[in-house]
Amino acid sequence: MLNSAGTDKSLGISGNLSPADYQAIQQFLSQNCGIELGDSKQYLVKSRLQPLLAKFELPGFADLAAALQSNAFSAQKLKSAVIDAMTTNETFWFRDERQFSELRDHVLPQVLAQRNGSIRIWSAACSSGQEPYSISICGLDALRASGKNRALQIIGTDISEAILEEAKRACYSDAALSRGIDEATKAKYFQKSYDGYQLNEEVTRQVRFQQFNLLKSFAALGRFDVIFCRNVLIYFSDAIKRDILTRMADSLEPGGYLFLSSTEAMPPGIGAYEMVRSGLTNYFRKPG
């Protein structure tokens, strides 16, 4: 219970966030995961980080800000928890369904026709797994339609280790499935379990998850035929957006495809892609 001064009486925790402490948290997030909060997101910081004060037995935000600036090993769990809390974003199945229709009906058939070997797809900032698993379902449909026996390798990455643990479990509630999964798809790919609906191995075996920071080098991830990078670039500065998209072009095979969200535009000055305009949606292709 908070009193008028913003203090939890039962725990002795202060909920006050000073300008200096907010600036320290801003700087930590910018340097460690590229998030640019701006100067008016104090409410977001307080709502997402307040629970960590009790969890880590910190008297207030001043102590949290000080710990974020520390190099002590004991501060690493707190730093990871702050990143997890500030980067957990909304997601749902087949988000922007037109893009998944384009992937299934046009992009994957073209990739299958043009290349031999495994098809590799990267779902960046994949959150709790709905996007890479949606990609996997589309991939299964495309492979069946093609009559080809090809391996599909999907890598889902996110900076949050906690959210990736949810993704790996591949078990979803009724509420989560209601956001994008119709009854036919539920019956085909999910099995009822004691705590929700478990996704079939046919879908999950094509997907692996890896904790990854988009500010780091992409080299170890390898090359991809398709990259999904949706609803994450909005949190970065223009300079970081351009850097990420330029490096993603280097990670694409010649003729590979990039999907941004339908509300995101390619920043000016990036010549590594050409826009593909279809009757359903727009996306990008690396020439080659």
UniProtKB/TrEMBL annotation:
Cited SMART domains: MeTrc
PROSITE patterns xrefs: CHER
Broad enzyme group: transferase
Catalytic activity: L-glutamyl-[protein] + S-adenosyl-L-methionine = [protein]-L-glutamate 5-O-methyl ester + S-adenosyl-L-homocysteine
Signal peptide feature range: none
InterPro entries: Bact_Chemotaxis_MeTrfase (IPR050903), Chemotaxis_MeTrfase_CheR (IPR026024), CheR_C (IPR022642), CheR_MeTrfase (IPR000780), CheR_N (IPR022641), CheR_N_sf (IPR036804), SAM-dependent_MTases_sf (IPR029063)
E.C. no: 2.1.1.80
GO BP term, example: methylation
GO MF term set: protein-glutamate O-methyltransferase activity
Alphabetical keyword list: Methyltransferase, S-adenosyl-L-methionine, Transferase
Superkingdom of source: Bacteria
Function: Methylation of the membrane-bound methyl-accepting chemotaxis proteins (MCP) to form gamma-glutamyl methyl ester residues in MCP.
Protein's name according to its UniProt entry: Chemotaxis protein methyltransferase
Species name: Methylomonas koyamae
